[in-house]
Amino acid sequence: MFFDRPESGELAVLVHLELSAIDSPDDPREFEELALSAGADPVAFIFGQRATPDPKTFVGRGKLEEIQETVTKHGAELVIFDHTLSPSQERNIERELKCRVLDRTGLILDIFAQRARTHEGKLQVELAQLRHMSTRLVRGWTHLERQKGGIGLRGPGETQLETDRRLLRARIDSIEKRLDKVRRQREQGRRGRSRAEVATVSLVGYTNAGKSTLFNRITSSDVYVQDQLFATLDPTMRRVELPNVGAMVLADTVGFVSHLPHRLVEAFRATLEEAANASLLLHVVDAAAENRLHLIEEVQTVLEEIGAADLPQLLVYNKLDLLADAEPRIDRDDQGVPRAVWLSAVTGAGCDLLVEAIAERIGEQMVSGALVIPPQHARLRAQLFAGNAVQNESYRDNGDIELQVLLPRAELQRLMAPFREVGNPPQWLPEKPEEEPRPEDWELD
């Protein structure tokens, strides 16, 4: 950080407190997995209970002495707390323990810094780190709060702390402008896919639920996969052809975690907007997890933060190979609409069912039938062929062209809108009467 600290190391003592004020305490096993994912070597795990955090040291005097003894015994160089510490608490604990202290937010930021590979990902991580560090400047620069003096040492009339605050704000502003450009570029891509009527399906879910493995299985890609938290940080998108539906774009996104730091959500908003603007969310769940219902709730909380909670969702219960006597299947609601798919991304069992369910869910907006086109409107025929919407073509005795088509309802309305007022317009003969677009719907939105 921005103050003198002991040399950091990998030997770590983990600290987890059960607070009475919290109704649903965190899983300490997940905290240990986070530490391992960051590269730490835990030598001890200290537990405790408190009604409320101590305002000075979070854990209180007695527990702090226990931590000090453990650090001395094992020669640990790092203490990690499974909580969010205030800057003053972090500094006070470091002063007492004489070693580096990291809270849950700092731990997740460190993991993200290790995983970032693309330029965009590195910018987002740096932005989150700078926002986190900005809250710790006051405590860090206490030895430089006075203005410099003496020959050759006189500054611009501001303290060292003020200088660093100004430089930090300038760097944050610069990164935010560059990420705004990335956000605009992504928005242009989404508008292009919308005009082409290509559905976007985003994989979301708790970290280490198997999203990237499933992504590779469906798209035949080689996205980085590892049995660790936050193995995927940078988003990946691939085009997939669905039977009887057409093309879709599948997006693999960063996994969620309990108490995901808000500054991370803000920094990764450009990436998470891919999920917020998807046509369908594939909510991947670790079916073998004992607390899978709690994990589903945590993911819903993050989806609400990014404005994606109301989007259509299809639950995907993954890791079926870890359950005894479990078979791949599709769960449907009372109307027969797929609501959940059980599969194993590792073995591939049930992945064909997932593709089938995705096609059904996306196909809810598809219409099929015959379109009778008079010869003078042959331009419409060319547009339908260009959009890969024609399944069969035949000609009537009077010269009319009859096309069997399958395409999104919105695309059909867009194509037929120019013919609303013309004489002898094309006639739509749907397979299902309820699919027929009304004349007032033919106009573009």
UniProtKB/TrEMBL annotation:
<dbReference type="InterPro" id="IPR042108">
    <property type="entry name" value="GTPase_HflX_N_sf"/>
</dbReference>
<keyword id="KW-0342">GTP-binding</keyword>
<protein>
    <recommendedName>
        <fullName>GTPase HflX</fullName>
    </recommendedName>
</protein>
<dbReference type="InterPro" id="IPR016496">
    <property type="entry name" value="GTPase_HflX"/>
</dbReference>
<dbReference type="GO" id="GO:0046872">
    <property type="term" value="F:metal ion binding"/>
</dbReference>
<keyword id="KW-0963">Cytoplasm</keyword>
<keyword id="KW-0547">Nucleotide-binding</keyword>
<dbReference type="Pfam" id="PF16360">
    <property type="entry name" value="GTP-bdg_M"/>
</dbReference>
<feature type="binding site">
    <location>
        <begin position="252"/>
        <end position="255"/>
    </location>
    <ligand>
        <name>GTP</name>
    </ligand>
</feature>
<dbReference type="GO" id="GO:0005737">
    <property type="term" value="C:cytoplasm"/>
</dbReference>
<dbReference type="GO" id="GO:0005525">
    <property type="term" value="F:GTP binding"/>
</dbReference>
<feature type="domain" description="Hflx-type G">
    <location>
        <begin position="199"/>
        <end position="366"/>
    </location>
</feature>
<feature type="region of interest" description="Disordered">
    <location>
        <begin position="421"/>
        <end position="445"/>
    </location>
</feature>
<feature type="binding site">
    <location>
        <begin position="205"/>
        <end position="212"/>
    </location>
    <ligand>
        <name>GTP</name>
    </ligand>
</feature>
<dbReference type="InterPro" id="IPR027417">
    <property type="entry name" value="P-loop_NTPase"/>
</dbReference>
<dbReference type="InterPro" id="IPR025121">
    <property type="entry name" value="GTPase_HflX_N"/>
</dbReference>
<dbReference type="InterPro" id="IPR035647">
    <property type="entry name" value="EFG_III/V"/>
</dbReference>
<dbReference type="InterPro" id="IPR032305">
    <property type="entry name" value="GTP-bd_M"/>
</dbReference>
<comment type="function">
    <text>GTPase that associates with the 50S ribosomal subunit and may have a role during protein synthesis or ribosome biogenesis.</text>
</comment>
<comment type="similarity">
    <text>Belongs to the TRAFAC class OBG-HflX-like GTPase superfamily. HflX GTPase family.</text>
</comment>
<feature type="compositionally biased region" description="Basic and acidic residues">
    <location>
        <begin position="431"/>
        <end position="445"/>
    </location>
</feature>
<dbReference type="InterPro" id="IPR030394">
    <property type="entry name" value="G_HFLX_dom"/>
</dbReference>
<keyword id="KW-0175">Coiled coil</keyword>
<dbReference type="InterPro" id="IPR045498">
    <property type="entry name" value="HflX_C"/>
</dbReference>
<dbReference type="Pfam" id="PF19275">
    <property type="entry name" value="HflX_C"/>
</dbReference>
<dbReference type="InterPro" id="IPR006073">
    <property type="entry name" value="GTP-bd"/>
</dbReference>
<feature type="binding site">
    <location>
        <position position="212"/>
    </location>
    <ligand>
        <name>Mg(2+)</name>
    </ligand>
</feature>
<dbReference type="GO" id="GO:0003924">
    <property type="term" value="F:GTPase activity"/>
</dbReference>
<feature type="binding site">
    <location>
        <begin position="318"/>
        <end position="321"/>
    </location>
    <ligand>
        <name>GTP</name>
    </ligand>
</feature>
<keyword id="KW-0479">Metal-binding</keyword>
<dbReference type="Pfam" id="PF13167">
    <property type="entry name" value="GTP-bdg_N"/>
</dbReference>
<feature type="binding site">
    <location>
        <position position="232"/>
    </location>
    <ligand>
        <name>Mg(2+)</name>
    </ligand>
</feature>
<feature type="binding site">
    <location>
        <begin position="230"/>
        <end position="234"/>
    </location>
    <ligand>
        <name>GTP</name>
    </ligand>
</feature>
<feature type="coiled-coil region">
    <location>
        <begin position="158"/>
        <end position="185"/>
    </location>
</feature>
<comment type="subunit">
    <text>Monomer. Associates with the 50S ribosomal subunit.</text>
</comment>
<dbReference type="GO" id="GO:0097216">
    <property type="term" value="F:guanosine tetraphosphate binding"/>
</dbReference>
<dbReference type="GO" id="GO:0043022">
    <property type="term" value="F:ribosome binding"/>
</dbReference>
<dbReference type="Pfam" id="PF01926">
    <property type="entry name" value="MMR_HSR1"/>
</dbReference>
<keyword id="KW-0460">Magnesium</keyword>
